[in-house]
Amino acid sequence: MAQLELKNDVVVDIDTQLTAHTLITLQDEGVVDKDFIDRMLNAGVEDEIPLRVKLNAVYAAYREANKVNYLDYDTFMMEYQIDLIKVNTICAAAVLGKDVAKFSHYANSLVKKIPKEGSMGK
Length: 122
Known about the structure:
The chain is mainly α. It has helices at 20-28, 34-42, 51-65, 73-79, 84-96, 100-113, and strands at residues 2-5, 11-14. A two-stranded antiparallel sheet has the order 1-2. Helix 3 crosses helix 5 and helix 5 packs across helix 6. The radius of gyration is 15 Å and the shape is globular.
């Protein structure tokens, strides 16, 4: 299972393969709204997802992995230091329903294959 380090040096599990139950639970708790669920499920490659939605995806991944013992939303957000690379990777994996560790490895392999500027594709 993937993990995320919080500000207080606590390491927590995350699971980006979000279930309908987790999303509905978060909506019922008022953590996310219907717009969040729609944006997550309907996001495309070209869509710009607002930062708040991405941060909510990080929390949703945290709650997916921690169904019983978990930090409430405000406490989690106070302890989470924003790392935009991780936020984007977690959000993309959640949108695609992929395990973040496998998705991150795949994304990194694609980045390595992108030709460097001036290399003419070599």
